[in-house]
Amino acid sequence: MAWQLVRHAFVMIFSNLGQALKVSVIPYALLIAAWVFFFVSSGIPMSADPEVMGASAGAFGIVAFLLFLALIVFSVFVFGWVAVSWHRFILREEYTALIPAVNDRPIWPYAGRSLWIGLIITLIAVPVFMVVGFIAAPFASVSLIVPALAMLAGITVLAYLWMRWAVALPSIAIGEPMKGSEAWAATAPYSKTILMVVLILMAINVIPAILLEGVYAAAPIVGFVVDVAMQWITVMLGLSVLTTLYGHIIEKRPLVG
Q1: CA torsion sign, 107 to 112 to 115 to 120?
Q2: What is the Cα–Cα distance from 128 to 201, expressed in whole angstroms?
Q3: Which residues contact 154 (CB under 8 A, 6 or more apart)?
Q4: From the CB of residue 48, how many other CB atoms can be counted at a distance below 10 Å?
Q5: What ranges in 93-188 are assigned the alpha helix state H?
Q6: How confident is the model at residue 209 (pLDDT cuts 50, 70, 90)?
Q7: Could you tell me if 187 and 104 are in contact, meaning their C-beta atoms sit under 8 angstroms apart?
Q8: Using CA atoms, how far apart are residues 91 and 243, in angstroms rounded to an integer?
Q9: Closest by alpha carbon to 75, among 244, 241, 237, 231?
């Protein structure tokens, strides 16, 4: 059933590709433009190398720092904007114009609940990775396999918890908000399926990311374009999986295939 859920999410995107692009392209184009403007105006290099970024951190003036905070807020808004538009299209057949609607949309409540779940996951991550470190430490000097598996297990646990609670997010998008505890209770009978969905999504995200490193090394511009496309698919797939879980578990909708 897990693969059927993920496949349904893929079908959801590519059978409605026009709408998927409409709900996302303009918002993310604005977001990319905002970040490019920030890097250009602040003089901080756009680099994936943390050493380069770290060396430039000291150059942050107060104006650049405030602009950076504003961009973080705008990034959260864009995520909520895209998510709400997509959930409403799939669950309520609410078609989107070239620029997705903003007025009378629960974008900030959606973003706020997402951040709240993220905060809870962050707090849980502290003891989880303490356990991971305790398990991995004795093997670190011998082999990286055990530490890598322990880290993967920790990430899987956190992603699983996120998915169980985040099933409530589509309800906010359509104006019928449910509590995180209600989502947790409703998804309990599907806990094993959701765990398998998480593992499938992790594989879908990790394998292309590894291959992308080679593309970046050979052709940075091509790598950037491919990276943007992959990030788009990752975001839309995640939102579609949540929509599918909500539709199937909460609204009792059948799955495709």
Answers
A1: negative
A2: 21
A3: 125, 128, 129, 131, 132
A4: 12
A5: 107-136, 145-166, 169-173, 180-187
A6: confident
A7: no
A8: 8
A9: 231
pLDDT in tens, 7-22: 999 999 999 999 999 9
- Gap between the Cα atoms of 92 and 105, Å rounded: 13
Structure tokens at 48: 């994936």
Q: Measured between alpha carbons, how far is 190 from 201 in angstroms, rounded to an integer?
A: 16
The pair of structure tokens assigned to 27 is 């918002």
131-184 pLDDT tens trace: 988 888 887 777 778 888 889 999 999 999 999 999 999 999 999 999 999 999
Could you tell me the two tokens for 81?
């904007």
Token readout for 245 is 């879980």
> What does the domain layout of the chain look like in residue ranges?
2-250
Q: What string of H, E and C letters represents the secondary structure of 221-246?
A: HHHHHHHHHHHHHHHHHHHHHHHHHH
AA identity, residue 33: A
Tally the residues of the chain: 257
- Over range 234-247, report the average pLDDT: 94
DSSP string, 54-77: HHHHTT--HHHHHHHHHHHHHHHH
> CB neighbours of 20 closer than 8 A, spacing ≥ 6?
13, 14, 86, 236
Handedness of CA 97, 107, 75, 92 (dihedral sign): negative
* Cα 8 to chain centroid, rounded: 18
